[in-house]
Design a protein that fits this description.
The complex is a heterotrimer of chains A (408), B (292) and C (285).
Chain A: H1 3-10, H2 18-39, H3 45-48, H4 54-58, H5 71-74, H6 77-87, E1 89-93, H7 102-113, E2 116-120, H8 126-135, E3 145-149, H9 150-158, E4 162-163, E5 185-197, E6 220-222, H10 230-242, H11 251-262, H12 273-278, E7 283-287, H13 288-300, E8 305-308, E9 316-324, H14 330-340, H15 343-351, E10 355-356, H16 359-365, H17 370-374, H18 388-406
Parallel strand pairs in A: 1-2, 6-7
Antiparallel strand pairs in A: 3-9, 4-9, 5-7, 5-8, 5-9, 5-10
Chain B: H1 4-8, H2 17-21, H3 25-46, E1 48-50, E2 57-59, H4 62-67, H5 70-102, H6 107-121, H7 125-136, H8 141-146, H9 156-181, H10 184-192, H11 197-226, H12 229-235, H13 242-250, H14 259-290
Antiparallel strand pairs in B: 1-2
Helix pairs in contact in B: 3-14, 5-9, 5-11, 6-9, 7-12, 9-11, 10-11, 11-14, 13-14
Chain C: H1 2-5, H2 19-51, E1 52-53, E2 57-58, H3 61-68, H4 72-102, H5 109-115, H6 118-121, H7 124-141, H8 147-153, H9 161-184, H10 188-197, H11 202-213, H12 215-231, H13 234-239, H14 244-252, H15 256-284
The chains are: A alpha+beta (408), B mainly alpha (292), C mainly alpha (285).
Amino acid sequence: MYKFVYFREILRDTPLGDTVIASRVRLAGLAAFLLVGATACGAAPGTSTPSGAASDGGSAAGVDARTATSAADFGGLDKLVEAAKKEGKLHVIALPPDWANYGKIIEAFKAKYGIEIESETPDAASADEINAVKTRKGQDRAPDVLDIGQSFAISGAAEGLFAPYKVQTWDKIPENQKEPSGLWFNDYGGYISIGCDAKKIDKCPETYADLLKPEYKGKVALNGNPTKSGSAFAGVYAAALANGGSFDDIQPGLDFFKKLKESGNFNPVETTPATIEKGETQISIDWDYNNAAYAPKMAEKGIDWKTVIPGDGKYFQLYAQAINKDAPHPAAARLWQEFLYSTEGQNLYLGGFARPVLLPAMQADGSVDKAAEANLPPVDGEPTFPTEAQVNKAKEVLANGWGAAVSG
Amino acid sequence: MRDPAVTAAAPRGGHGRSKNSLGALPLLAVVTVAFGIPAVTLLVGAFTVRDPATRVSSIGTANLSRSLQGAYLNALLSSVRLSAVVAVVAAILGTFLAQAVITSRFTALREAVLTFSGVLANFGGVPLAFIWIATLGNSGVLTTALGLGPGTLYNFWGLALVYLYFSVPLMVLVVTPALDGLRPQWREAAQNSGATTWQFWRHVGIPVLTPALLGGVVLLFGGAFAAYATAAAMVGSTVPLVTLQIADALTGDVLIGYENIALALSLDMIVIALLVMAVYLPLQRRSSRWLR
Amino acid sequence: MVAVAALPDVTPGGPAPAARPGQRRAWRGIVLVVAALYFVVPMAVSFWFTVYSEGQGFSLAAYGRILSAPGFLSSLLLSLGLAAATIVVVLLLTLPAMLAVRLGASRLGPVLELIATLPLVVPPIAYVVGISTALRGGIDALAATPLWATLIAVQDERFPIVLVLAYVVLTLPFAYRSLDAGLRAIDVRTLVEAARNLGASWPYVLFRVIIPNIRSAIASASFLTLALVLGEYTVAALLGYQTFPVWIVTISGNDGQLSVALSIISLLLIWLLLLTLSGAGRKRS
């Protein structure tokens, strides 16, 4: 607290004349009061006027866009496009432009429908998205659509935050990748992979077992903290599978990272393109679509970034889409989903090295973008999925044990 | 600045007490809303236990007891340890630096160091982490140049080293007025009575400075205890810290339904800070007696 | 000195004073050199990192990229706006309250002291957890009342009043203490009563009599508030607002050199603010 005494010494006098302060202070105070007073009164639209903003959304077809559960409810896709264009705007959250090709997807949607997209807090996490839905209920800046981890989709659906909707390609989405009534549905996913700076590292690791070799001292990083980042959590889960664990038992994964830490190989820095560029994270466990997407970008900076899916720890997980029940732009939100699950949208995901949920269907009917498919890091066999109960148990174990595993 | 004529013509004003306290009303109102409501919410939330299956809430201490076990307790203790180490080391180094500057003949040096301290004491967060990562990170410039192994920075002591970057300057600012307050006469008196430098510090300097030093330690402790962004960018969870645990429980892609644990951990932090503050306040009063 | 020198008996021999200045200069030199190394090297090294890379050699391009990075100006303006509003509000709230205490409502003194201390024991992360929980609960609880729109309005992302309120609370202890030091140096009661008896209105007393006398205290309160708001990350980030420190983190993930360049720039920004305030203060006197 003594620091103020010091400031008093060096800031003997200020240039701010008393009159200037007086008038500015009065003005600012007045303005602030008027602002709050004039704009800040009224109840939530949902409580006083039941249809509220929604009525202009679907009024063209005489449909309330907020309750429409399919394009057919609007009278076909054209009518949905019409209603969405009328809203003119879509508010998305947590879509980083370099994640699963979202930068291009947003551009393509804008160009195709002439609907403006406000992309907010691209780096937000699933919990932030759910939080935004809850705290901004009724605000114009509430997110219209969400791209969240499946667990958050399940718990959000249970809390009644989402509006049910079935895209036109609904039937092609595998049964275990969607909520039956359409409250959420998986969009794209990837395998846990090991990325590696092949210029700085002589021989890149190809399995979890390789990561323990002494030559990788201080180099093995995760994309964040497993108690916080979905990909890092998956990285630990995959490590469990590689070390005798199972979907029911994540503990071997924790033990693996404890060993990694003890050997000095574990690097606590969170991977970002910037840390790769700095050479701070030369080996990174992350989703394959992130690692694969780094490669072309890093090539420009003279870094040869390689991606392999570890044969001993294969773990595949998808993210999910959901529509905010109180979406400020309900028709645009539904059109966004139709776009994402169209062949065009799904191939755009693929162009960003992510594996779209309709990939098997598209491979079957030949509509898949063959060039993009060929760029995917190779992997053998079919993915298997843990149940929600198994995932929750794994998280519980992780929350209690992760700190102890890597601290010290 | 005061006009003696005005000062002289000052009979007792006739304003009532109630009217005078009106001036404090806006502040009280704003603090009640902006501080009181979040504080009460935090308190209630920390004691609200939510059954994940039934979604029924009840009052209980389950969150709190969970926040004082296992990984959470570990993080809490580690935070306290880190803050204590940083506070004590920064207090010692800061005092030496301040004394070196004060006793220097160059007033320009004094001005420069104090201004620099004013800047650095307010520097923190992620930018601080970036600067140190570029310097001593695994492929930092110094790490490479000196041939240090990886992991030099990403541990408890590395984090402490980085925290000192804003703590030492803060201590310099805190302790400079107190050192200035050590009157030269006292020292001359001691010298003239034949005391050695050590004896002077042992019997005069340190006793007079103690309250200010301890006050500084408390302030530095608080700063390190509350720091979040720097640690988050640097060490992930290799150094468990309570602020990181709160952020994990609150946001992220993994944990669901841990919000009330975050509230309980926040309450733990407040209690610790209150205990520390309880030491600080009486000391502040004592030290101000000497430093008029 | 004279008084002490008059007692020669008390100085029995003693160590040779001539040796001491040299010794003292030596330890001072070591302390200053070590401190200089510790504080300057990371900055110098970071600067080197931003201007030199193995592929491209020497270039200032990273600093050029700052200006063209999306969101730079809007986030900086938001932070400056929040800082200005916080300074105005905190001064307008604190000054009248502190004057009231000195002009008779002294019973409120301990209350004020408590209010100005409490925010210090609540770390920002704990505080923001309380705020976000309260906001979430408030939206549901107040949905049917006119206050609902108020709650929405204070969260407007273009100018989040909720952040101003939070910053007012966080900065209160610092503002209170610097103003307290300023007010302690003048006789508030005499000044005010004299002015009032001469027929001055209350606003006149505040702006023409009190404020000119504690100008330096107000300046230091303003600087501390400014520095706090411009550097505050935790509250803004967890409430989801794109202030300057939050923007730095967002933009830094993609570009290594840019992230360090921004760190250096933010350090320079604090320095500039301090220099402006203290330099301007000197010109006046």
